[in-house]
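Subject: mismatched residue count in predicted assembly?

I count 1046 residues in my input, but I want to confirm that the predicted structure covers every chain. Input:
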Amino acid sequence: MKKLTIYIFISVLGIGALQAQIKNQETITASIKGNCGMCKKTIEKAGNEKNISAVNWDADSQTASISFDKTKTSKEAILKKIAQVGYDNESFRAPDDVYAKLHECCLYDRDHETAVAKEDHAGHIAKNDHAAHSSHQMNNSKETSLNSVYGHYLGLKDALVASNANTAASHAKELSKAIQQVDMGKLEKSEHDAWMKVYKSLEKDASAIAAEKSIDKQRINFINLSNNLYSLAKVAKADKPLYWQFCPMANNNKGAFWLSSEQEIKNPYFGSKMLTCGSVKEKI
Amino acid sequence: MRSLTKYILLLLTAVLYFPADAQQVVRYDLYVRDTMVNFSGKPKNGISVNGGIPMPTLTFTEGDTAEVHVHNKMKAGTSLHWHGVFLPNKEDGVPFLTQMPIKTDEPFVYRFPIKQNGTYWYHSHSGMQEQIGMYGAIIFNKKKGDPTFRKGIDDIPSIPLVLSEWTDLDPDNVHRMLHNANDWFAIKKNAVQSYAEAIQAGHFKTKVTNEWKRMLAMDVSDVYYNKFLINGGSEKVYPDFKAGDKVRLRVINAGASSYFWLTYAGGKITVVANDGNDVEPVEVDRLIVGVSETYDVVVTIPEDGFSYEFMATPEDRTGNSSIYLGNGIKQLVTPLPTLKYFEGMKMMNDMMKMNGDLDDMGMKMTLQKMDMNTVMYPEMEDQQKEAHEGHQMQENHKGHDMQEKQDNSATHEGHDMNSHQGSGNIKTLNYGMLKSTIPTSLPKDAPVRNLHFELTGNMNRYVWSLDNKVLDESDKILIKKGEVLRITMYNNSMMRHPMHLHGHDFRVINGQGEYAPLKNVLDIMPMETDTIEFESNADGDWFFHCHILYHMMAGMGRVFSTENQPANPYLPNERMGYPMLQKESNMAHFMIQNDFATNGNDGELMAHNARYSLTTEWRLGYNKMHGYEVETHLGRYIGKMQWFMPFVGFDYRYRKMENHESEKNLFGQANSKDERALFSAGFAYTLPMLVRFQAEVYHDGTLRLGLMREDIPLTKRLRGGFMVNTDKEYMLDLRYILTKNFGVRGHYDSDMGYGIGLSVNY
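Triage response: the counts match. Full output below for your records.
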């Protein structure tokens, strides 16, 4: 009885093993680019599918032997999956950004630099901001040096939008310098009063951000910094309009404000994670 | 008479034929047949028209008269709706509203003059026929000498791309499963969002909050599809393009319930028209096409030797479909990575109030400008990282340390450029960017009537409505010809809805002033408020509904009806009209399940529609002591969220207790009868954590209170449940889902003890 059970068990296993093979098999070879053992792993993982396809890639010949069930898939479909994880092959060229993200040792030489017409996507955006920023430098000679404070604040804001802690820190450092360099003598009475109320905490928050490496903590300090600068901007207008913007989800759903030179929402508290979250509350 | 007119007209066109802009009658014959199709490896039922899916592309020139002869060779009745087309109401193709269904072999001709140009489409408006093949493109070309003719857009090669999806399941069954909150689709889509998965992702608290707020797992779409199709296939190559060539793609989303993202491997996508109407060209990286929307986009072939992938990806990203433009090695576009569902769940938790209303936190969301779904998109995070790395690389290049010391302002600018270039936000189209090429203002002296609709819904029971009323509960909305209707809609549901108006274009108030874009479908995301306006200029009954097929069939729509309209010759019998349309969108859905276990049978039969539910539950033992018990309840759901349901019921129980022992409940009420038949009344209420509280009083005065929770998603396929009541009965169960209809269930029942069995559901 026991033997019978074992026999049945084995034969079931045997059938199982038979079924695990690829039916309606067709085997082809295809050239696929790549460098190393790591490439081999990625290529084969992308192309293998249980009972449907098996890929065996060889680094020396830059070719793969591919067996597949021709009723379920095709050579094209398998090669496409391999190109989608970054490996150019005889039918498909991998997307440039996927290729660029491959491990260093896998960055094989490509036949062709780029297939996409290069466009300077961000070019005009950068130019616009560029202009906005340099304008305050020129106006500097005029009565107010507060514009430099606003300018560096906006630079800091943009760095937070880009979620770049290093740039944020260096902008905050500049901001802190600019705050110290404000010539109070040139301010009007009302501006002077407003400045006196906030400049200490402005300086404190700016230096705190400059000293901070964690973007999350920088953003926390940025809340207070923004609020103080807002109360200043209400009295001492910047030479360009500023937009007072609010995202109710920032600061753990307590909400937080910031100033921006453009009406379009670009959220410094979330960056691209929730870039457009927020609304304009006021134009100053 | 009709055929005589036709004959004369044909004769006239033959005589008066001019090659340029003569009025032509353009005739198409469509043969509609039941057919077997194989999209996924298994032959399934579909509908072919002239032998294929999708239906043939119909091409006309503005000024032509369309004449479409329908030859229905199917068993079922059918209809054809001309989506976005201005036409007499009787040609609009909505069964029971503008015509009777076209019966088998009944000759039927749609005939209307073409007054528009652009990309449109047509589909069956009967039942679920649109899901299984009855959709196709219509192209209206501009007349020669049309002043709106645009060089580089209207004179370049154009390819209609009909996007759709395929399910191997019968769509009526899909609809039924949605109403029964069956989570088989979520399993197939890997979107169950179970507790185990939540813990793994570090989102246990998110999951608990979600259930506390009585939400089921959130998803961007409801149905699992086996395949996504472009023109009924995929991977088609269009090799006849050279470097620098521009191609106009006329993209039509003919999917029944899928939104599609469009991405292109050869650079930017230029949007030039929407819903058939020209818009000022706008360049984007990607756009989403709502269900039933059309977008005309222009793309450029950058280089010879490559064939560039143009990909359509459904919003839930469970698959995709592509074409390739150009000749050579296929340059792929990066596939969109899978959604981070728990991020979405967290976002929804923040937005959902305890009473089920959404709270936009004063953000005034509108026109797709603020897409909350981006929290689920991994590619956004990648961008963030890249921005960072790119930045550092460039910094090193410049050796900026030195520069910084020398000249503050210079580095300042350098920084700025870098960060912008890096973050190079993926530019996504939104409705705010659409601007008509011609002024679209409505007559200033026309009377304006304001209407408000709240888009409402309930995922748990799959009820979709306007102002919490399904079509079956609403009369036609009477409007006057010549008045301007300004409609404001607020989406207070958790899903987006593409709202479609028949027979008219509306202006979308999007800040473009008199150049507000004209559309016939408007996608409204959760929490958004949008305003549209149009002039009532055509007699008849015009359907206004959500174009997600399963939402429409659940009752999400209204009918605008002009006052004193002439009688519709295609609808002789009034009782076969609107009431039938209403009935169709509020059909009862059935569900049955039974657990064949070692200690007995547990089962349930349910029939329910938007408001009522009739259920029978049974427990059948294998011996007299266990006996059997049948409880039947008829209830009505109250409120928008339908958490509260009063009901009346009838209980029957038989069993043989040893020694005539009596049972006492928690309130000391005894019951000793072996056989009892009792009427009852009570209510059920869904508590936070989706626990169902039930209170029931029987006609002999006994009271029973109970708590119950079914289908707690423990892992992707494992469900837990419990029940406890004041009769001192309790039950715990675990069910492992094997297939759509089968599972293994183990449970402990205070009456019947341990049991293990096969659970079957339909």
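The first strand of chain B starts at residue 25 and ends at 37. Marking this ticket as 'not a bug'.
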